[in-house]
Design goal:
- The protein is α+β, with helices and mostly antiparallel strands.
- It has 3 domains: 39 residues; 127 residues, 2-Layer Sandwich (Beta-Lactamase); 104 residues, Orthogonal Bundle (Arc Repressor Mutant, subunit A), CATH 1.10.10.60.
- The protein is 39% helix and 17% strand.
- The chain contains 14 helices and 8 strands.
- The strands form 2 sheets. The chain has a 5-stranded antiparallel sheet with strand order 5-4-8-7-6.
- Strand 4 and strand 5 form a beta hairpin.
- It is globular and about 60 Å long.
Length: 321
Amino acid sequence: MEYLSAKEAAEKWGITNRMVNYLCANQRVNGAMKKGNMWLIPQSAAKPSDRRRKAVVEGDLSDLAPRPEAGRETTRSAMSPNNAELFLEIFRHFPFPMHICAPDGTMLLANHAYLEFAKVRDPQKLFGKHNIRHNSRLKAWGIHDFMEQAFQGELARADDIKVPYQEIVVRLGDARNLVLDSLYQDLLSFPICDPQGELAFVVFIMVTTRRYSAREEITIGKEYIDLHWKEDFDLDELAGLVHFNKYHYTRMFKQHTGITPYQYYQERKLNKLKEKLCDQNLPLTQAFAECGLDYNGNFAKLFKKKVGMSPAQYRRFMTEE
């Protein structure tokens, strides 16, 4: 039997290499076998169904209402037509930005949090007219594969994505608004299928993990530290990013945040170390090493001073049942 590599199958089926690997790992490609770190796909294997439905009526979420199982009676309250209305009410007031798309990528609904986030004044100009899959910037934003997985009808997640906030506002909302905030979000999508198991809707949820609303120079400094927290602190390089003298930049940073850049760096290190210490599979020395620290160095003393207990005591406190 002749086989294709994942790359060759991706070209043949018109999807990404990553998606082929995902489909193989989830046993959705008949006859696929793994050899080392590579998947071998039979040349005759058909592209797996993407579980999409051809057409969805704009804004019609009636399929979300539960249906009785065969041979079973249900109470009137369980089958009430208001079930779909209840879902929509919960959806509208969900505290995080959410939107619902048809299988082809057309946006059908968005909740209040999303409309506020994108600064959308007239939702009717958005619903049924904006297709998120047709955005040519998905690769540049680092979410192309996430979108492909979502519209294959799978649970998908992308962590800590820098949001192109200004572009979103210009494209969807009031273009006159100038957005200075810098946002990072975790993205989650999940499918809603009809009774036949076909994809009916794709729901997207966005949770902001970091938000910077200070002066641009402060935002740049915070973002740089957040990305390079594992490395040694370099004030000269940090100040050079915004073309400031390091002493002047330290004063300005503290004026706007209440702490110096180095103290901000230490706090990031401290929080990351706390996360690692909660992993009981990591020895203490390795937990420190994962954060670019030496267990026998001064940071263990700083940890005890800041937290009020040693790293070992903190681990016992956080992991004891």
